[in-house]
Design goal:
alpha+beta, Jelly Rolls, about 45% helix, about 30% strand, DNA-binding transcription factor activity, AraC family transcriptional regulator, transcription, transcription regulation
């Protein structure tokens, strides 16, 4: 059975307060939590957190910290419960979430021997208003939830490579003093720019898709595009296919997903590979000639795509020819 501690009642624990660094040592040497706070700007704050426990521990926490929160787990894992939303998730290495919160009520459950490291970035004030809230389409709903103390979850996902590298650089800054602060500022601003841009771009795409309507002419063009691919009359790339059926690339991709539950690129690739396999097995052409016939400029690109599709080198299929020598 895990031990339950209330992080809001720090008087129960031995606390070392070193300026912006706080360390909480729990009773009976059961574990500790360390937090390092850095003020990046008037509206952006960075928290570097370390959880280290020798026993199974549950931590009950409430916070009035408000704003857009970017949380990135670097190492370790824990079970996280959002008491307001009554949602439970497992936070593990290389996972992240982005939420807009007014206050938080959380339960963290950490297993014995687990060392968890994460960073939290809080964005608020004029920066949040100018670079995020004014640009997002569902601002009214977000603010309404905010007033009701309901978090808005914008992202829960595996951390992408760029953000992952930046987060590790932040946690393991090689500098001290003023240079350390400048280093952290540059890395935090990169993460903020990257994540806000990603959320806003996806938000805009959702709005565009809501507005897209396929006319009879569009549907005819989409069916024609599919026929051109399937009939193998030519192995067109997306720009050429778009021009051939007189439909812009966005509507072509959107329409394929809507009508055929695939993408033009995936269908083109599949038919290229099937035709290539047929020619490898039954024609007298060599690999270079076949790669050009199915639309590849470079043999290596063709070989890589073929191996990925059939889990075998094109040479293996040539060997099955009746007159192979």
């Amino acid at each position: 059975m895990s031990k339950l501690y209330d992080l809001n009642d720090l008087e129960n624990f031995f606390v070392k307060d070193l300026k912006d660094n706080i360390k909480v040592d729990f009773p009976n040497e059961s574990g500790s939590v360390e937090v390092e706070k850095t003020i990046i700007s008037d509206d952006i704050f960075l928290y570097k957190n370390s959880f280290n426990f020798k026993d199974d521990v549950s931590l009950d926490s409430s916070s009035s910290e408000e704003g857009l929160c970017i949380n990135i787990v670097l190492d370790g894992s824990l079970k996280y419960t959002d008491r307001i939303l009554d949602e439970q998730t497992n936070k593990c290495a290389n996972s992240m979430f982005v939420k807009y919160i007014n206050q938080s009520q959380s339960l963290f459950e950490v297993n014995k021997g687990n060392i968890l490291k994460d960073i939290g970035i809080i964005i608020k004030g004029e920066f949040l208003q100018e670079f995020f809230l004014e640009k997002i389409s569902n601002k009214e709903l977000i603010l309404k939830n905010y007033e009701k103390n309901i978090p808005t979850n914008f992202k829960t996902a595996q951390t992408n490579l760029k953000t992952k590298i930046l987060a590790h650089e932040i946690f393991n800054s090689p500098y001290e003093g003023e240079l350390h602060k400048i280093y952290l500022q540059s890395k935090v601003y990169e993460i903020v720019f990257h994540e806000l841009s990603d959320i806003l771009q996806k938000n805009r795409l959702k709005d565009i898709k809501k507005e897209v309507k396929l006319t009879k002419e569009d549907i005819y063009a989409l069916q024609k595009a599919k026929s051109l691919i399937c009939e193998k009359r030519f192995f067109l790339n997306l720009p050429k296919l778009s021009k051939e059926v007189a439909l812009n690339e966005f509507k072509l991709k959107y329409g394929f997903k809507k009508l055929f539950n695939t993408t033009p690129g995936a269908l083109i690739l599949e038919h290229r590979m099937l035709e290539a396999r047929k020619l490898l097995e039954s024609s007298e052409l060599n690999i270079t000639e076949i790669s050009k016939l199915v639309g590849y400029k470079y043999v290596q690109s063709f070989t890589t795509a073929f191996k990925k599709r059939f889990n075998a080198n094109p040479k293996e299929f040539i060997k099955s020819r009746k007159y192979y020598y």
